[in-house]
Design brief:
Quinone Oxidoreductase, Chain A, domain 1, 347 residues, Rossmann fold, globular, alpha/beta, 6-stranded parallel sheet, binds NADP nicotinamide-adenine-dinucleotide phosphate, 2 domains, binds zinc ion, 11 helices
């Protein structure tokens, strides 16, 4: 067993604190990764605070993991010592169901094995990337392109794929008007990727504070949702709306911004369900959908797309000791645009 240093939540109401546990020794198909950086996703907060229910403790959050291969099992083919690699939101799945065999492991019929707050097939709990190292089957390990700096690559493993996948699925591209609600970790990647795909991008943010940033990230238009006239001005305007807000918002108001046959995709997962009126959908044959991260093949495709278009995340690097402060700042929307933990101090 490999002794591993980490930060963990011991319960839903306690701040994260130092924690030690053991990782399994690499099996024949496993890659042992020394974690360099881990992004801080809002899902880490939701789960560490048990906002979705069913959290298990102690919890070591973190599913935007990048690092260097330290050792490989005897049967590993894709990776060698020293390779730059990443791990996203899941570390295993059944591998045989229709979803798994078609590259949609996130929808595995047996349930994917979450990188943390999950259970391995042998029944042991999974611990995530707020730690010094991780051991993962090579099938669930991604390659980080050389041209992307490791710290700015980390958030691509969740925020990147969670926005790339729906943008691709709903054909964001030239001639398409795409709106992004919420300019946080997911939102800022949605803007960069949609812009790179050639779509006309609008940011819908609570205030005008992030307007200059949004333009720099690639947005064509920016509106404050605190201004009621925004909803009049933009009525019937968008082909696609990505909702990346971590809190409850009035979905009906935003559905009014879709064109006929337009689609709003829910990415954010607030703790309470939001009411949707049939009237918001039937007038204009509108679609309300959702999207969950992305499969391994598509995640690699997204990383390569980002390298090709020179995209990465805008980050604020923090030591792991600042994680509780970072959570508070994220809840206030005070992050530009992703906290990334430098795990050096745990090595
Ligand atoms: P984040 O960095 O905290 O960004 C969320 C943004 O939402 C904020 O920056 C803010 O943008 C806006 N916002 C926050 N509170 C709001 C409120 N009360 N009213 C209106 N807008 C508000 O979070 P994130 O890491 O991007 O994650 C966003 C959500 O997606 C979370 O719920 C997370 O769990 C979920 N998620 C889902 C998936 C998936 O696969 N579907 C994957 C990852 C994360 P402005 O300042 O611009 O208004
Ligand atoms: Zn995430
Ligand atoms: Zn499966």
């Amino acid at each position: 067993m490999i002794k591993t240093k980490a930060f963990a939540a011991q319960s839903a109401t306690q701040p994260l604190s130092p924690f030690e546990f053991s990782r399994r020794d690499p099996k024949e198909n496993d890659v042992q990764i020394e974690i360099q950086f881990c992004g801080v996703c809002h899902s880490d907060i939701h789960q560490a605070r048990n906002e979705w229910g069913g959290s298990t403790f102690p919890m070591v959050p973190g599913h935007e993991i990048v690092g260097i291969v330290k050792s490989v099992g005897s049967n590993v083919k894709k990776f060698k010592l020293g390779d730059r690699v990443g791990v996203g939101c899941f570390v295993d799945s059944c591998r045989t169901c229709a979803s798994c065999t078609s590259g949609l492991e996130q929808f595995c019929s047996q349930g994917m094995v979450g990188t943390y707050n999950g259970t391995e097939k042998d029944g042991s709990p999974t611990y995530g990337g707020y730690s010094s190292q991780i051991v993962v089957d090579e099938k669930y390990v991604l390659r980080i392109p050389e041209s992307i700096p490791m710290d700015a690559a980390a958030p691509l493993l969740c925020a990147g794929i969670t926005t790339y996948s729906p943008l691709k699925h709903w054909n964001a591209g030239p001639g398409k008007k795409v709106a992004v609600i919420g300019l946080g970790g997911l939102g800022h990647m949605a803007v960069k990727i949609a812009h790179a795909m050639g779509a006309e991008v609008t940011v819908l943010s609570q205030s005008l504070k992030k307007k200059d940033d949004a333009k720099r990230l690639g947005a064509d238009h920016f509106y404050a949702t605190s201004d009621a006239t925004t909803f009049e001005k933009l009525a019937g305007n968008f082909d696609l709306i990505l909702n990346s807000v971590s809190a409850e918002i009035d979905l009906n108001a935003y559905l009014g911004l879709l064109k006929i046959d337009g689609t709003m995709v829910l990415l954010g997962v607030p703790d309470k369900p939001a009411p949707v009126s049939a009237f918001s959908l039937i007038f204009g044959r509108k679609n309300l959908s959702g999207s969950l991260i992305g499969g391994i093949k598509e995640t690699q495709e997204m990383l390569d797309f980002c390298a090709q278009h020179k995209l990465a995340s805008d980050i604020e690097l923090i030591p792991i000791q600042k994680i509780n402060e970072a959570y508070e700042r994220m809840i206030k929307g005070d992050v530009r645009y992703r906290f990334v933990i430098d795990l050096k101090s745990l090595h």
